[in-house]
Amino acid sequence: MPGVQSAPKAKVFVIGAGLAGLSAATILAARGVAVTVIEAAGQAGGRCRSYFDAAIGGTIDNGNHLVLSGNRAVQDYRTRIGAQDALAGPPRAEFAFIDLRDGERWKLQPNEGRVPFWVARKQRRVPGTSAGDYVKYAPLLWADSKTRIGDVIKDRGALWERLMRPFLLAALNTEPEESSAALAGAVLRETLAKGGRFYRPRIAHPTLAAAFIDPALSFLKSNNASVQMATRLRGLTFNGREAMALDTGEATLPVAAGDVVVLAVPPWAAADLVPGLTVPNDFRAIVNAHFKMAAPAGAPAMLGVIGGTAEWIFAFSDRISVTVSGADAIVDQDREDLAIRIWADVTKALNIQAPMPA
Fold first, then answer.
1. Domain residue ranges in the chain
2. 255: pLDDT strictly greater than 80
3. Residue 204: strand pairing partners
4. What's the chain's Rg over C-alpha atoms?
5. What integer pLDDT is reported at residue 205 of this predicted model?
6. Nearest to 64, CA basis, from 216, 167, 164, 204
7. How many CB atoms lie within 10 A of CB 177?
8. When comparing pLDDT for 38 and 155, which is higher?
9. What is the largest CA-CA distance in the chain?
10. What is the mean pLDDT of residues 292-318?
């Protein structure tokens, strides 16, 4: 009507441009919402980032982020930002392992369908296990939030040691015996319980940034979202439970009625910004080692390691990368000593006769 002004369009401020923040921002931007992303660091990605490393002399990832094909949230995110082809992996689920204690090697080869007939075939399951061993993990699928995995799984035989413990440690980053049985059940329901087509291993290609971050930033730009890097949110002004303003130190950004603030930041940062907020306060380290050497011909793209310091070895065209989860026991060790220790595992696992590279 003439003389009548429409109400201003509500805005959403997303604080943090890690994977959680970018996911929230791209969902909102896809719906036509006016989005402003504010990130303290000079680059997006948070823990899921790539960077130039002087020792390697090239770009490496901040850790090796394995994705299983049944992860629907990752699938939706990649589709939204146009990065459907940014993950690489085998056409079927298969996982190579080595036990460094005795040198035994095997390959886990699940079938694609929901009925796990593969566990009945000795050559396709974990050595030293029987089909009945796998059934013992079914109670995790309906465990409650107060139960720990150690309360449900009492048998710590070959299946636990050579598959379930390393798998759950990688997924939960906490000693599995102490971890939530409900969380473990959620992981199993979306992957192992659905059949091999839901846990085909996928690795970012060529880098985490190319797979998850750069396409998201391009998507936000094309959808008129504002992304402000190197801008730390120093405080929130509240009126009761309502956020009224954002303080970045250099500017105060008003939060109008109807606007929304999304905090996609680490727990300790959220606690500083929101008085009285209860957040997690106990964390576990992850250690990654990167060696400037191409993996030998025929090396699996990902190799699970039992009985060593290294837990997962990833083979790239220009480097070998190692990940150790729940790594509090080694994270404070001397960097060079730790590299030597991990490289010793790599040479055994990949049959390499070479001094430690850069």
1. 11-77+207-273, 92-199, 284-350
2. yes
3. 87
4. 23
5. 84
6. 204
7. 15
8. 38
9. 84
10. 96
